[in-house]
C-alpha cells in the first residue's frame, strides 16, 4: 500500500498559491484596471497582498473567479453591489467544500488492488477510528479503520 500526505493536496490547492497581477486580471475579465481598483476600494475584491502598501496588486484565483462573475452579472444589468452579493452567495458552497476538505484531508492510501482511500482523519464520535472515503464504481463509500499510531 502506498501513501500520500496531507501536503500533497495543500500544495496543489493552497489558498493564494496561484496569483496574477491587475493587468492580467483586467485582460481576463474585460474590466479596466481603474475599475478593478474601484472594486477593491469598495471591498468587493481584495488583493492577496493588501497588507503590503506600495506593492503591485496580486490576486488569487478566488478573486479572479469573483471578478469575472461580477463582470458577467454587470453585463446582464446587475448593480455593482448586487453583483458582488450574488457572487458571494454563489461562491459559498464551493468555499464550504474547500474548507471542509482542507481541514479534514489527511492524505490518501492506494491499496494493493489500486483502490484509493482518502483519509479524512479521526471519526468524531469514535476518535480511535479513522474515517476514509473511496469510490466504488461511481458510488461514494465510507470506511472506518482502527487509528494507526
Automatic annotation (TrEMBL):
Q: Which InterPro entries match?
A: DNA-bd_dom_put_sf (IPR009061), MerR-type_HTH_dom (IPR000551), MerR_fam (IPR047057)
Q: Which domain of life is it from?
A: Bacteria
Query: What are the alphabetically sorted keywords of the record?
Result: DNA-binding, Repressor, Transcription, Transcription regulation
All copies of the HTH merR-type domain together span 19-89
Could you list the residue ranges that cross the membrane?
A: none
Example of a GO MF term = DNA binding
Q: What is this protein called?
A: HTH merR-type domain-containing protein
Source organism of this protein record: Lactiplantibacillus plantarum
